[in-house]
């Protein structure tokens, strides 16, 4: 059986192979759980951390925190990717897991007395430091560990697994990351109603135990040990250094492979983080928050005369007026009411019709949180099958053709979800497709990137592809918030929806890069000799 086949690859694994696979898969699975905890709770966190700003400003603030997180991810990935080649795969992976687990817990302290006391101390010396800033710093530090884990884990599994099991094991390791996301989505519905979004981050500290096990139970791959020993035996030869960024881009083959890998990563990561991972925010913005009392009030409102409408609006308490104002200015109609007039003007005919449609869709906050949790679980179920689908397809039609199909499918999925979602029941078919289509390329990153570089540059190469792309992705995510604000009110669709579809055009970058991508199907891991 060839290493690229997707069949019973697990039959080739012995005892230690299983230990490596399980620990590496758990490390990556809980890594992605951490990401899911953040993306699922981002809207809730922004609402509590920034209670006085509007919906569009919260999207922008959420974009900034996401960008900061991804920048930390990229920096950590580059640092630990090089360390993985120089210091060793297992030791580096243990450090990254402990790092992201510890600082996930720190993020949950953003609204604690510790954070507030720190803010007061810094205010005494003229520095503004709010819980929002504390949260952003926690996310950056978490990103350092999150970013470093994938490259060293993928290199470790690629080098330890038998040749006949390599592609299958890497694909399954990546597919299991969806289980981490699935678990994170489930925790949203369980933890947030009881302990708030902060509770999610405290739960996120437990993967540190996996890091401790890696540190004490796992040793370095024999392939890396032999290559490292050969290099140390010839210290005068500076032409083949481990973890050398200069060598990665100095050799024409490795440089081409690195540039192709970076372009593929930019396309998929930007499509997922710039658009696909905002699906929870999409639900929060489209499904209106309404208690049963709110529904009765809005039924009276849309049935009243213009003069009576103004009286009903003026008779609302402060919280009810704030909720109604947000509802009114975010209605997907054109033209829209000006924000300054939302509490003083009667409803336009188009607003009456839209609110009539929204009343049956309205949910209280707890029900909406459970809906988001369910949707994210459906998305990650699709993601599991999407990532493993790459392994199956790539073994039959090749890596390049599978990547091409994945990029096209991801682009279609984002547009379909963000432009057609209106009703809660649509999560049952839109969200699994979104998860499947946007995550197929990620199965490819696990399988394909280790096949592009030699042992001494493997962790560094994977890291550069996956994480240099994240710097570009960080800018794209930041652009989402700005685009959402700029496009809001320009069409009947919320600016947030149009911005997500535009960001997803990044898949074109991956499609173009495939022109220069080498085909690695049915080939062993490359070595320079």
Describe the structure.
This protein has 529 residues and is mostly helical. It has two domains: 9-229 and 242-286 and 364-513, Growth Hormone, Chain: A, CATH 1.20.1250; 292-326 and 333-361, no CATH class. It has helices at residues 15-49, 55-86, 89-107, 113-123, 131-160, 166-175, 177-203, 208-217, 222-233, 245-250, 252-273, 279-286, 292-303, 306-314, 318-329, 349-361, 365-397, 399-420, 427-448, 458-487, 495-503, 507-513. Helix 1 packs across helix 7. The longest helix has 35 residues, at 15-49. The chain starts with 14 loop residues before the first helix and ends in a 16-residue tail after the last helix.
What would you say about this model in short?
The protein is built from 22 helices and no strands. The radius of gyration is 25 Å and the shape is elongated. The chain has 529 residues and is mainly α.
